[in-house]
């Protein structure tokens, strides 16, 4: 059991963080910390963990081994414990630029026309007009080239169904459940992060091997 007098540092790393180019990565950037037994929390948050180089690219991996090494060099008496993931991804770059309005409009038009053509081609493939005419004749006993009684509710249903499915109407969200699109985007980002973390660990290991061979 650890003596009560030993100061302790509890760390929870953030999943990712973005800092400006040329700015050093500090403990306060990447972690939430709780310090007991010492009155040096602000000094700890200011501990520099790493100074990104041009060769590091746009993403730097900070893991617990690096944090423990840097913190112990300044506060060797600290007992360190962490919660959650043992690493965090730090994106290097300036402020996020606002979206280009012209590009946004062009993409919106492309998606609008593309989705409209996809729906029309689907209806042409399955002969939806003939299906509506046949259903209308079965229900009313009369033939009609334009059974609006079916076509209007069907058209409205497509739009309402898409709104309900994606759980969004412009910026309005109907409930707290994530939409299928949000889930897919989350899973994609998780997979990208996992890939980047794996590649960064490989790079760190390769650099360590090269240093050992050089020594």
TrEMBL record:
Cross-referenced InterPro entries:
SporV_AA, SporV_AA_N_sf
What keywords sit in the KW lines? Membrane, Transmembrane, Transmembrane helix
Residue ranges constituting the Stage V sporulation protein AA domain according to the UniProt record: 8-93
Kindly list any coiled-coil regions of this protein: none
Looking up Pfam families in the UniProt record yields: SporV_AA (PF12164)
Domain of life, source organism? Bacteria
The record's section on Gene3D superfamilies has: eubacterium ventriosum atcc domain
Q: Which residues cross the membrane?
A: 101-124, 144-166
Protein name per UniProt: Stage V sporulation protein AA
Species in which this protein is naturally found: Paenibacillus mucilaginosus (strain KNP414)
């Amino acid at each position: 059991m650890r003596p009560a007098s030993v100061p302790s540092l509890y760390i929870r790393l953030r999943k990712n963080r973005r800092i400006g180019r040329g700015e050093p990565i500090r403990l306060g950037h990447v972690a939430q910390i709780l310090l007991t037994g010492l009155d040096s929390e602000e000094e700890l948050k200011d501990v520099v963990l790493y100074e990104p180089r041009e060769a590091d690219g746009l993403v730097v991996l900070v893991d617990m081994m690096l944090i423990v090494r840097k913190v112990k060099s300044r506060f060797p008496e600290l007992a360190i414990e962490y919660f959650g993931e043992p690493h965090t991804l730090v994106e290097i770059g300036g402020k996020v630029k606002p979206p280009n309005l012209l590009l946004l409009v062009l993409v919106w038009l492309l998606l609008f026309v593309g989705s409209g053509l996809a729906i029309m081609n689907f209806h042409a493939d399955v002969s939806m007009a003939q299906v509506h005419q046949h259903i209308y004749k079965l229900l009313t006993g009369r033939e009609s080239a334009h059974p609006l009684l079916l076509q209007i509710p069907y058209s409205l249903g497509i739009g309402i169904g898409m709104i309900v499915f994606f759980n969004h109407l412009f910026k309005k969200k109907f409930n707290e459940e994530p939409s299928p699109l949000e889930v897919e985007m989350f899973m994609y980002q998780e997979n990208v992060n996992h890939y980047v973390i794996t590649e960064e660990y490989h790079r760190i290991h390769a650099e360590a091997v090269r240093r050992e061979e050089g020594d």
